[in-house]
Amino acid sequence: MNSTAAPQTTQQPGVPGTPWTLSGQETVSRLDVAVHDGLSAAEAARRLQAHGPNLLREPRRRGPWPILAAQFKSLIVGLLAAASVAAFAFGEVIEGLAISAVIIVNAAIGFFTELRAVRSMEALRKLGTVRTRVRRDGTLREVEAESLVPGDVVILEGGDIVTADLRILQASKLQADESALTGESVPVGKAGEPLEEKTPLAERVNMLYKGTALTRGSGEAVVVATGMNTELGAITSLVAAAQTSGTPLEKRLNSLGHKLIWATLIIAAAVVGAGILAGKEVFLMIETGIALAVAAIPEGLPIVATMALARGMHRMARRNVLINRLSAVETLGATNVIFTDKTGTLTENRMTVVNIVQEPGDVTVAGERSAAENGAFTRDGHPVDPDRDGPLHEILETGVLCNNASIQTGDGIGDPLETALLTVASLAGISRQDLSERMPEEREEAFDPDSKMMATFNRDGDGYRVAVKGAPEPVLEACSRIMTAGGESALDDAGRQRWLQRNHEMAADGRRILALAAKRTGRLEEEPYRDLVFLGLMGLQDPPRREVHQAIEECRAAGVRVIMATGDQPVTAVNIARAVGLSEGADAEVIHGRDLQPPGDLSPEQRRRILDIDIFARVSPRQKLDLIDIHQQHGSVVAMTGDGVNDAPALKKADIGVAMGQRGTQVAREAADMVLKDDAFSSIVAAIRQGRIIFDNIRKFVVYLLSCNVSEIMAVSLTSMVNAPLPILPLQILFLNLVTDVFPALALGAGEGNPGVMRRAARDAREPILTRRHWLGIGGYSLIITLSVLGALALALSWLKLPSRQAVTVSFLTLAFAQLWHVFNMRDPGSGFFRNDITANRYIWGALTLCTGLLLLAVYLPGLSGILRLAGPGGRGWALVAAASLVPWLTGQAVKFRPAGSTPPGGGSLRLGPLRRRGARCRAQCR
Length: 927
Fold this sequence. Notes:
Elements: H1 24-30, H2 41-51, H3 64-70, H4 75-89, H5 93-125, E1 131-136, E2 139-144, E3 153-157, E4 165-177, H6 179-182, E5 188-189, E6 207-208, E7 213-225, H7 231-238, H8 248-277, H9 282-296, H10 301-318, E8 321-323, H11 327-332, E9 337-340, E10 352-358, E11 361-365, H12 368-374, E12 377-379, E13 382-383, H13 390-401, E14 406-408, E15 411-413, H14 416-426, H15 432-438, E16 441-448, E17 453-460, E18 463-470, H16 472-477, E19 479-484, E20 487-490, H17 493-508, E21 512-521, E22 532-541, H18 548-557, E23 561-565, H19 570-580, E24 591-592, H20 604-612, E25 615-617, H21 621-633, E26 638-642, H22 648-653, E27 656-660, H23 666-671, E28 674-676, H24 681-720, H25 730-749, H26 772-798, H27 804-822, H28 842-860, H29 864-868, H30 874-896, H31 908-926
Parallel strand pairs: 9-23, 9-26, 19-22, 23-25, 24-25, 26-27, 27-28
Antiparallel strand pairs: 1-2, 1-3, 3-7, 4-5, 4-6, 4-7, 8-28, 10-11, 10-22, 11-12, 12-13, 14-15, 16-17, 17-18, 18-21, 19-20, 21-22
């Protein structure tokens, strides 16, 4: 929509048609809602019933009939239909009916497989829900965005996704990225004053629209339109849902399939011509050529790939990983660098105030249980009463006033740091609700990543109390006085340096440090960050996650490098790095953000140093972007974690953007490729593991399918060129295509993966699905299977003296069972003979059992055996089938065999060499 779009006039009943023309008070009055209380739960439920859920019209769900119809549009069905028509034309009615039955069975298999895959993907899309903070029944709550109704009072912060059309009531440095709606690339500043009715959408600064994002600031707004009645809904109703393109992996599979189609058609035409010239029956050769083409075309590749992706994504969802883009699954398997934040990813994000450092003396804060027994606050071992200690009471109140969080029934809603400030104040009997009623907030300066501070103005008598919190360095710089036991005194540069040293000492203990300051003023327009009174420092502790140490070790074994890039202080970063096993010494080298130069200004030596460092502290979001760029230019596939608005560019820049589901902003979650519901680093490692497994499974069934199909082509092609009976007849080829191709391939795609998948290096992201080694393997396996089949046919005719029909049955069964046993050749090199990812896959055993039963029915079931022209081979024939069909398996296992103590490809010292060299350099520096 352009900036001159006409005003919307299709608002919901009860909502003003042009809310931007009204004042905030008029808007809430017409919506019949009190700003400070919000809607009641009962009224919200009534309005939800009247207006419906806050949802856009979703893409039409693919029903069973379109999926079924799609099964008859493929090239394989066209070839089968041509064979059926040819059969009827040559008077072969039974064969014509049999081929028609094959068409139906093939369509049924494709239909049920694709239906399950489609439903799996639809279920995955419903796993992620967006939540919004609203005021209902006088309290702050988080509700699902779809339950928003006109009249809901929404609390806004930078990083939120706007989930409905809103009329702004209050705004503090509020900016929104409305490029998705208006095309404006620059964030738009927001305010609450009324506007003219004809104001273009892009200039309605007192409105926020569904689908846009808040880039900074904070505020309050009231919902004026939801669902399809929003501006975004109006656009949605004008355009059809866009067709999603496949992932790069699916596109590569489709490209591979199309190349094979043309190669197969050429070969099939050559086989038909050679057979006719050799004197074979014309219809038999035409039918054989079509059957060969059908057998060789891997039409099942996209469906099996989709099933493998869907199953892998469900496994990730069970491990609290939600995938936003399917292409991320492929990239995960090639990831070899992880940039991770500290707070909430390596740590528990359970902030607790443990000490308060002020000029009158240090105060230790006890845990809740100890507080109940011995008092919450102690100084030099003696209890301290905040009501009688002016400086302590002042800093606790400041932490409550300069705050956007809330606590309900013991649970914090909002930033964990801010909820920690509310919790420590509650130990002193200071309630946010009581304090807000006594000193209502009149103005807020939202947290600014550049200034690293936040401020609020609260009415206090005839003037205002300014409460400020932020990073120690900028807060101290803005202070000219300091609170002491005897009152305020001057704060000079020497005093600031002493407090910065205290800050450094506290940070060395692994604590996060917050500085607080305040002042009184008579003007609401006063500059908040000037002439402040320094109140002191609060030390907050966020313990490392227990599972992170093991996860980092697993990354090392997998050749995945973990790099910490945090906004915290260097000493804090090293402390946490040492605790989680990322660093082996307290003196590990750290690069401070102030020492980082833009990539274009780096010398080769500086670039190499950055590539060797594992800890970066005090880095800005822009510097994270630069670090990712440096490693990508070095050839790395980079995953990056983020949670804030300013992390969004880096999340998009990274090969895999990982957003935090609990503490992350909605902007970050929208920008990311995957979201961690539990914010745990170990979940990233689990996702990388699944990404590798999925790619390995897809590669295995591609190799399996192609080697089976090529063996059929080779066997028929060789016999067609000489005066020899065909080892497998057209209908038998079609039967095998349904049996030995589909079920084992599906089973391979559903495998749990090799337990050692995280003990080898990440694959090259540019590596194709099938490398030269895989193509050689396909050719080798196909040749061995072909020779086994032709050898069995020759022995059945010349040695066992079997009739032609029984001899062909022997070659048919040899080919079928050789392909079934061939599935065990798909195990990884160096894996155990009896215990490996194939033998541990219960779906493999189920597929083999099913296929064996179907083969026995094909031979012995009257009617079916007649159509397929099969006859029981007898005891000696079965013995020959068993011996010949095992030859490809035994050959494959011999190739896979490695002596004890040998190193599998991609493993051992070869895999960890670069990592060990880098670790040795780090240890040398740490010493």
